[in-house]
Structures are given as C-alpha cells and as structure tokens.
Amino acid sequence: MGNTALLVIDAQVGIIEGPKFGPVFDKERLLDTMKNVVGKARSEGVPIIFMMDTEIASPISIESQVHPHISPTRDDITITKKAVDAFQFTTLHDYLQTLDIKHLVVMGCKTEYGVDTTCRRATTLGYDVTLVADGHSTTANNVLGAEEIIAHHNCTLHGLDNIENFILVRDSDENIFTHRHSDFKK
Q1: Where does the Isochorismatase-like domain start and stop, copy by copy (predicted)?
Q2: What is the predicted pLDDT for the residue at 162?
Q3: Tell me, what's the pLDDT at 1?
Q4: 132: which DSSP letter?
Q5: What is the spatial distance between Cα 14 and Cα 6, in angstroms, rounded to a whole number?
Q6: Segment holding 137, helix H or strand E
Q7: Alpha helix (H) ranges present in 69-142?
C-alpha cells in the first residue's frame, strides 16, 4: 500500500448532520462506510488525510469538526481548505509528494462539490484516483435528488482520465487500497 493514501473530504458535522449544509443523504450508511474504510486504512498502514472546509462554521464549533464517528487520530493528517478543490491553496499536493503517493482513495462530502472537483484535479496533478462509490454523499438540489447526484457522479467519474491518470469508482467492500489502475494502462 506504500503509494496509496486515503483522502477524506469535508466529513464535518455541519455537512453530515446539518443544519445549514445537511443532513446528507443516507447519513447513517455513509458514516458506517466511512468508519469501515478508515478502519481498514489504519489496519493496512495507509496514510489518512482529512480535509476540512473552513467555511462550514466557526472553527471552535462542533459543526466545523470532523464527524466523531470517524475522528482523526494523532497519526492522521488534517489540512484546512477554503476552496472546493482540496488542492487549491493548501499543502495537500506537497504533503502527498513527500510520501511519494501515486494513488488516492477518496471519500467524503459533498459529492458534486469537493469530492468531484478534488477527484478531477488529482488526475491533472498525476494521481490515479479510486472514488469510494458508497463513501460519498450530498443533499438534493432544485434539479436532482441526492441519490441521483451520487449515481450520476459514480457513472460520470468512473473511467474519467487526464492523459495518463484516471478515476476508478469502486465499492468499499472491494480491495480499494490496491492500486489497480496499471491493470488498465497500456
């Protein structure tokens, strides 16, 4: 697993539980999935990075904190961000480079914002991405329900490529930390 890291995007109380930005669709299932994936990453020695959006709430409020169901440990890295893109104006790329990470496993909130944007940007920066199909969620908007948004992004992002790097969408019960992208590269 030496070239793989787990990136957890905006899994904060204020998004998952609300009231302003949530609750996200099927939050109990999402939290169970994220807890299982985080646990699997820890048991396999995969580095875990939690991205936290500073625009959610006051930094001292419970809403701004990573959800207690998946709280970071002292071995995990937490990076704050202001932009939807987890790489924009953050130390994320530099940190991943110091670890020689080539493969990112991504999950979190919200699907059409931080998750989508970060997955796409990661490929342009030279990372292969595994999006955890059942490990991201969102809320409905004026056009689509949350379940439709999630399904749309799982379909659209699977196979999305940028020259040499691309996104695979895989279920959490698969061996998601295995970097399988080379199986598809010529």
Answers
A1: 4-139
A2: 81
A3: 54
A4: E
A5: 21
A6: strand 128-137
A7: 92-98, 116-124
Q: Which residue has the tokens 């070239």?
A: 3
Residue 94 burial (10 A CB sphere; 0-12, 13-18, 19+): exposed
Looking at the DSSP assignment, which residues form a beta bridge with residue 98? none
Kindly report whether the global pTM for this prediction surpasses the value 0.85.
Answer: yes
Q: Exposure string (b/e) for 160-178, b if CB count within 10 Å is 16 or more?
A: beeeebbbbbbebeeebbe
Q: What is the pLDDT of residues 71-84, one digit of tens each?
A: 999 999 999 999 99
CATH class of the domain comprising 4-178: alpha beta
Write down the mean pLDDT value for the chain: 95
Nearest-angstrom CA–CA distance, 93 and 115: 16
Element (H, E) at 52: strand 48-53
Give the separation between CA 160 and CA 36, rounded to whole angstroms. 26
